[in-house]
Write a structure and sequence with these properties.
Layout: E1 2-8, H1 14-25, E2 29-33, H2 42-54, E3 60-63, H3 69-78, E4 84-88, H4 90-100, H5 108-128, E5 132-138, H6 149-168, E6 171-176, E7 179-182
Parallel strand pairs: 1-5, 1-6, 2-3, 2-4, 4-5
Antiparallel strand pairs: 6-7
Length: 194
């Protein structure tokens, strides 16, 4: 039905802005949590718990980490027109996909191609969903090219996925320092490859 993309740097307020958009759409919101849990990382566990406490109690949470790509797409494929799904966030989704493919690191080009295929399938599912879909995406690539191959792959795949979703989205917002800028108000996206 509609896709809204909310992107921005870390701690910019993009998740809070996306949650506000979801609340405006209605009470029946499914929060698609993409972050992997790591019981050994207490700070990360505390962060995830804080995010869960900040969500309205009426929202349903679907934890996608550790599931296959096909299983991760199920909520979007089964959603009805009145449903609202909030996916937070593409970066942690990609981290989970990279973790699932940790045995494929010998061939970085093949790994990147596999991750791009997973990303393309996710983007197609989000765009085809009958629901109101709100997607949070970390904005990457505003710095130097990373030295580590894994960091380059992460940045490039996430950048392409975010750009693909932005081109297909009904609304795109850039959130910086707590301010949301409606990027659609400034024109159409660039042509692919431009």
């Amino acid at each position: 039905m509609s896709v809204t993309l909310v992107t921005g740097p870390v701690r910019s307020g993009k998740s809070a802005f996306a949650a506000r958009l979801a609340r405006r759409q209605g009470d029946a919101v499914t929060f698609v949590a993409t972050a992997r849990r790591d019981p050994e990382d207490l700070q990360w566990q505390a962060r995830l718990a804080r995010h869960a406490r900040e969500r309205p109690a009426a929202w349903v949470t679907f934890e996608s980490a550790g599931l296959t790509p096909a299983q991760q797409r199920v909520p979007f494929e089964r959603a009805a027109r009145h449903d609202v799904l909030l996916l937070d966030a593409l970066g942690t989704w990609l981290d989970d996909r990279m973790h699932a493919r940790r045995g494929d690191w010998e061939d970085a080009l093949a790994l990147e191609a596999q991750l791009d295929a997973d990303a393309a399938a996710l983007a197609a599912t989000l765009s085809a969903s009958r629901a109101h879909v709100i997607v949070v995406a970390e904005q990457v690539g505003w710095d130097v090219v990373p030295v580590a191959p894994s960091a380059r792959i992460f940045r490039d795949v996430l950048g392409r996925l975010t750009r693909r979703l932005a081109a297909e989205a009904d609304r795109v917002y850039l959130v910086v320092a707590g301010y949301a800028i409606d990027l659609c108000a400034y024109g159409a996206p660039l042509e692919a490859g431009a």
